[in-house]
Amino acid sequence: MLSAPADGSPQRTEVLELLRGSTTFLSARAVHRRLRAQGSGIGQSTVYRVVQALARDGLLDVVRAPGREAVYLPCSSSRHHHVRCDACGRAVEVAAPEVQRWAHDVAAEHGFAVSQVVVSLTGRCDRCPLGETPAARPDHRSGVAGPATPDPSCAEPA
């Protein structure tokens, strides 16, 4: 089995720079598609290995929902959570130390030690109109978590 490119490799840098420029969670497939559109020669399996390594190294947050493709977004080094728009996929990192404290307190009351706290908040951002709820599954053509056709008024700037 091939390993992910080492720290500082051109592929790792390329993937991380693309993800750092995104305000939405992206699948490895979407990362590959965007890099190829920018003229990169990176292979799809290399992208998959790189995003997995970046997530393992704590540089990317990953959302894995049953029956859906994993999606990635760069994260800060501090403990945080995300609020994600279910219409356009835009995500905002939020600090919530009270959630961390609550999770550790509840676990301790029941004889557990917390190894990870995962909170998933979804809703509509202030750029997307309320109304019909989009399909819950990510658009596998674009790899972006959200509907197949995001509202243009809240789409990510080019």
UniProtKB/TrEMBL annotation:
Keywords: Cytoplasm, DNA-binding, Metal-binding, Repressor, Transcription, Transcription regulation, Zinc
UniProt entry tagged with the keyword Nucleotidyltransferase: no
Record's subcellular location: Cytoplasm
A Pfam family matched in the record: FUR
Xref: InterPro entries: FUR (IPR002481), Fur_C (IPR043135), WH-like_DNA-bd_sf (IPR036388), WH_DNA-bd_sf (IPR036390)
Segments of this protein annotated with the region Disordered: 132-158
Database matches in CDD domains: Fur_like
This protein's record includes keyword Metal-binding: yes
Similarity comment: Belongs to the Fur family.
Oligomer and partners: Homodimer.
PANTHER family: FERRIC UPTAKE REGULATION PROTEIN, ZINC UPTAKE REGULATION PROTEIN
Official protein name in the record: Fur family transcriptional regulator
